[in-house]
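Deliverable D5.2: sample structural annotation.
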Amino acid sequence: MAGESIELLSAVEDKRYGGVNLDVAVEDPIDSALFHSKLQAEISKWRQQEKKGIWLKLPIRHSNLVDSATGFRYHHAESDYLMLVYWIPDTPDTLPANASHRVGVGAFVINNKREVLVVQETNGRFRGTGVWKMPTGAVNEGEDICNAVIREVMEETGIETKFVEVLAFRQSHKSFFQKSDLFFVCMLEPQSFDIKSQASEIEAAQWMPVEDYLAQSFVQENELFDFIAKICISKLDGKYIGFSNVLTSTSSGKKTYLYFNNRDASHLLASNHDQA
């Protein structure tokens, strides 16, 4: 990179943590020694201004500059950038850690014949075991739980569904890449019935009488699966209420779903409609 007059870094105040969000301002290759000098000069200035945390976003094309970011540590990485952080003051570092959880969903889909939609997977821990299980999958980034579970059922079985409730959820730890895991069991109402299973992931799919599903030795011998199955059946028999979804707005105007007990809080919805 010729000429030190070119601005290498673009800084924006980070009001959340009293620091700076820092981006590389050029696309061309950058000399690592020049980058190091510029970065250290900025850090000295921010130290005098009593700034705290620095978030340095390095595009993958500039990954050669990592070693030049003296004192920085890795925070996280995405397909197109690396995020490094640096805590300036001699106080405990209060920058938040990288995302700690993965979110998964499972679908309890039952038709009017009391048959539950189940699959056998071609991969994973249940491959070749003969176990029939609910369609499951991971929630994508930026995807709502209620939409993710509908998508997973469609992808795995070709069945169109309507979201009804979150019936239960569980949290586990040190699972996928040592991250914690949140798994939401959702009840869906089928809108179609002809199964078209996903050949790449699903060995077989069917509508199974709920009694046969419950009778599987794996379900009966696994405490968690047995508990989830009993919750689903209690819902089917009208003895259990889960969490319905309602679309709301945050203080910034962003739309988001709130999940709540519709039976015991139905008056809240009525109140909202009256105010509208």
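Annotation notes: The chain has a mean pLDDT of 89. The CA atoms of residues 246 and 258 lie 5 Å apart.
The annotation will be released with the project's public dataset once the embargo ends.
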